[in-house]
Amino acid sequence: MFLPGARDRDVGAALARYQAEGVASIGPVFAETWLAALRERADDLMLGRVVHEGLFFQHDAPNGRYEDLTHGEGYVGPSLAYRKLEKLEKDDRFRALIENELFERIARAVIPGDVAIYRAVLFNKAAGGSTAIPWHQDAGRFWGLDRDPVLQVWTALDDAPKDAGCVSYVPGTHRGGRATPLGGVVPAALVERDDAVNREVHVPAVAGEVLLIHNHVWHRSGPNTSSRPRRAVTICYMSAETRCLRTKRAPRSFVRVFER
Question: Quick one: DSSP state of residue 157?
């Protein structure tokens, strides 16, 4: 799975930068053979060659507009243009990624006690066009939790240069907490007020590179205008004591991944 020495890499400096700025890279971690296996499985899931009951799918908008994404349709047939797949913990290859020793060490450095996941997601930007994601925070009432998670571990399955829609962020915005109680997309007025565009930092990544992302940091990604797909996996780790607050349906239970 790992590049030589990566399993035991010192991540102290990256954790300090994540705490200070909201995003930090720990560099390339995974071997190409393992990345190829994950890319193959990602395509198998989108094309219906491997099926797991309960996976969540959202297809990209044909016109690339975030506002025009459809909700609730789920799997609409074989396509390599799904924007995201959730519940990757149901798949054995992705479950191995979620539970690897390096990620456990990172999660335990940030989260006290037992650790669960809120979600494990494949974010896919198809070659030649995809949806641009606006400034947002991954937290708030929309998530329906009794506390906000603070740690997401993002892994590039492909090279993610700027023209393929790399992650970008506004340093330090996580220290202000939620922009709105609801969370999610940051209102345009706040983006303008805080001069987000001029403060934006792009984080191009190579395949196998891992980023630590604070849930409250303002971040976004552009469309993929390159000729290659841009696939990445985001795992949101949190305290296993976190509870779901939703009442319209039965509260969610969360998969525990690291227990003492």
Answer: S
- At the topology level of CATH, where does 6-30+100-258 sit? Jelly Rolls (2.60.120)
CA 37/CA 35 separation, integer angstroms:
5
Its pTM surpasses 0.85: yes
Q: Are 235 and 153 in contact (CB under 8 A)?
A: yes
Dihedrals φ, ψ of 184, to 5°?
80, -135
pLDDT band for position 129 (cuts 50, 70, 90): confident
Contact status, residue 233 vs residue 121, Cβ threshold 8 Å? yes
SS3 of residue 113 by DSSP:
coil
Stretch (H or E) spanning 124: strand 115-125
Dihedral over Cα of 191, 160, 71, 68: its sign: positive
**DSSP, res 252:** P
Q: How far apart are CA 108 and CA 237, in angstroms?
A: 10
Neighbouring residues of 100: CB distance < 8 A, sequence distance ≥ 6? 1, 2, 7
β pairing state of 167-169 and 255-258: unpaired
Instruction: Note the pLDDT tens digit of each residue in 196-208.
Output: 999 999 999 999 9
Q: Specify whether the CB–CB gap between 153 and 127 falls below 8 A.
A: no
Question: What are the angstrom distances between the C-alpha of 229 and each of 177, 214, 220, 255?
Answer: 33, 25, 18, 29
